[in-house]
Amino acid sequence: MDKKLENWLHNANPWTNVYGLARTLLATSTLLTLLFNPTGNFFKPSSFSETYPNCSNRYSIFCLIDFNDTELIIIKWICILILGIVASGWRPRFTGIFHAWITFSFYNSAVAVDGGEQVATVFSLILLPITLTDNRKWHWQDPPQSRDEISKVIGMTSYYALRVQVAILYFHSVVAKISEEEWIDGTAVWYYIQSPMLGFHPDLLNIFKPLLTTPLIVVPTWGTLILQFILVMALVIDKKYWKYILIAAMFMHEIFAIALGLISFSLAVIAVLLMYLRPLEETFNFKEVKNTVLSNTFKGLNKIKLLKNGRLRYEEK
């Protein structure tokens, strides 16, 4: 048993670019929400309070001001700048703290936030132990070959806690759905797509309505239920099947993003799914991708010839 634990500690390494890419997507999700929405969309009087932002939690970054719209805008742009630094991958040990603070603050102080903000808040907090023990300059760098055992235990405990939390998230989603008649009889998606708030854009609805008003509507409804149940079971499924589940889950959430406009929510969930279903040791080879793109670009440029009349011609060889 001691030998197995020793081998596990030797091979355990949460500080890979898998978690790095997940952090980038998670930060980008909140960044885009703040960037493309005026402060008035999120910070305004509500049924709970006439004053804004909501400062029931005094630790919010948005409560460092005197309820002034101009100062709110300044804080918003400071948050966007910090989230940009987080997404770049620089100094995760320090930026991880600010990332968690901003997502926590936004979720608690804003109104009309969606599930994406909740996902970003919960998982930026769960990732904190990994970021605090990450001494790299960039989270894109190769993982350190040697680290102390305490840091490894802290980081891997955070990683496993994240996986359990994702499974719980989808478990709650499945249980909530099967308790509703519309999900059982296969018509839930039909109601969702026609919702004025969350449904399809009218033009998109006109295109797909002939298909979605047929019995085939049960396919996306029950398909969502089945896939979410598989995502729950992925907590204990063999790693060799993870990539197939990841592809299917990403496809499902991208459909939601495009059809329902849930872009920031989709980014946050994909970030979490990467940590859930991409083995940490299977790092991304970004250098190879970069070299391939540059190589193909230069090859294409070399085939472009400038003619005497000033026109360009592309030569196939």
Automatic annotation (TrEMBL):
Q: Which domain of life is it from?
A: Bacteria
- From the Swiss-Prot or TrEMBL record, state where the protein is found: Endomembrane system
Q: How does it sit in the membrane?
A: Multi-pass membrane protein
Spell out the GO cellular component terms annotated for this protein, sorted alphabetically and separated by semicolons.
Answer: endomembrane system
- Keyword Transmembrane helix in annotation: yes
Q: Where is the HTTM-like domain?
A: 11-281
Keywords from UniProt, A to Z, are:
Membrane, Transmembrane, Transmembrane helix
Where do transmembrane segments lie in this chain? 20-37, 72-90, 216-237, 244-277
| NCBIfam families registered for this protein in UniProt | export_SdpB (TIGR04033)
Q: What is this protein called?
A: HTTM-like domain-containing protein
Q: What is the lineage of its organism?
A: Bacteria, Bacillati, Bacillota, Bacilli, Bacillales
